[in-house]
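Q: My labmate handed me this sequence with no annotations at all. I'd like to see what the chain might look like in three dimensions before we decide whether it's worth expressing. Could you predict it?
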Amino acid sequence: RGSIPAIPATATIIASLSSTSLLVSCQQKQQLQQHSKCDVSSYYSTISNLSNRNELHTHIKNTHRTSLPYTSSSSSSNTPDVWTALSSLDTDQTGQNIFLVYSNKYVPTIPHDAGTCEHWNREHVWPRSRGVGESGVDNTDLHHVRPVDCNVNSARGNLYFGSCSSVVGAGGSDGGNDSDDGGSCTTPAHSEAAIDTQKNKHTFLPPANQRGDVARAIFYMDLRYDGEDEDNVENLVVTDCPEGNDNAMGYLSQLLAWHVEDPVDELEKKRNDSICRDWQGNRNPFIDHPELVSSYFGSPRQLPEDGSSSGYDCSSTLPPPAPVSMPNSPSSPSTPSTTPAATSDESDSCLGMEYGDIAIIGMKSSDPDAVFLLALADLPGGSVIYMSDNAWTGSSLKSNEGVLRLDIPKGGIAQGSIFGYDPSSSSSTTTLTLGDSWSKISGNFALSGSGDNVMIYCVQKGDTTSPQFLFAALYRNDWSSSENTDLSSFSTNESARPGRLPDNCSVSLVDGKHKNWWYQEGAMRQGNKSELLNSISDRSHWSGDDASFDLNVDTEFQMNRGIMDITSSFWFIHPAGLALAFLYVDHVS
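A: Here is what I predict for the chain of 589 residues:
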């Protein structure tokens, strides 16, 4: 990792002229009450599984005990604000010089910018215009607010993070003038920025020794903010395909690579300690446990090797990436599981599964999330199913939300069984079969209380770019009237209905604005596959509520095998030479 540059002698002289202001900052800090249980071991002591996203998200949210004002209402006020915190977190030992993240240098702490852009300013690593806003707690979250040169701050703007070659139309690193959408690549990104920075019309590249810090700040924001139960906070998502999502940041694969190339150092650890102890009360877990990054966000995808700079493939969320391993990672109280290896050919995860072999019978978006599934056929061991809250456009799944994967156990799942996704060990619902066995493939699977869709699918052999849908559900909205290939046309609670699905293999729930939905207790629970699908897809057989979730998983589904569920047959040759087939059927529908 690169070293922090030396402090110029003039910086100390200039700063000393403002010793009175520095004294005020010190007094302000002393007025803050230190937060308890901020050492690493104590902070995570109540977490049973660090790889459980719901559990860790809830913890860093609940321990976010203090939110500073962005700027104190009066210059004479002793109320600490973000200026005060940065003047403590990012200064040298004297407090007189502050480190600028994109310039890779120190400047005098006093004065800071006052609207003239002549001094240092405050940078939102996750930009305000990409989901943070100006009135939520995320606006002043110190884990992603850093001191920055005011002009470099303007140069960065709200650009995604990445090298100039990470998107379509990016110019080369030589600063050549391209006529396509990327424009030319400027190196350094600004005259006041570090020499190894660069930018074009889409991306901004920080200094090499700050790229890992930036990546871990972005990962923290993705985990911390899900848009639920907090005012003026959105569901923030980091992805390789952020275009079309106002709350998304890119580029995930670039950030994953930077996390490995620029590992956590002592300065980053000390900053994390101080944010928890002296200011906010919570920690960035990706600094404390860098090994969590691969289990939460997967591994970086590769850009095209032909030098075409065509960017990341956003036409499909498949095939899923494997996690990247982190060498020499510190141990954690609960080592997160990595994505399980496929037990079948990755391009053929279905192993004979068809439409309606799985149905959705419950969706819970009031924290913690849960999705309840019913096996309407015997699911073969070694098959793999995927669950996503990405919208279907008519030609592909969007990639701005999340994808989960479940490897069906060796013994398979019997017809009539209830299983699903419920990763929280303290769920208020019911212990759900295979609830914590899903692995994250991409994005952030987080059902929105304002409406969302759930797609269940597998991947057929020879068709890796197109999912084989098994069932689809949408709540607080109806399916789009027509399939649309414009990826930007669907918000997080909108989707086209997969046209290949039979009518009884989907349900849209628009009769009430509820966060939780479940198949009613009094609805059909005995019948063949077709009969049960007809009942489950009938929206009048569903109930909803904002707080409670009353799906009864103890009342079993009794499956009758239909006319095609043949268990044996035999042939008889008639004396006249006719071949007759006799079929033995368990139950006739």
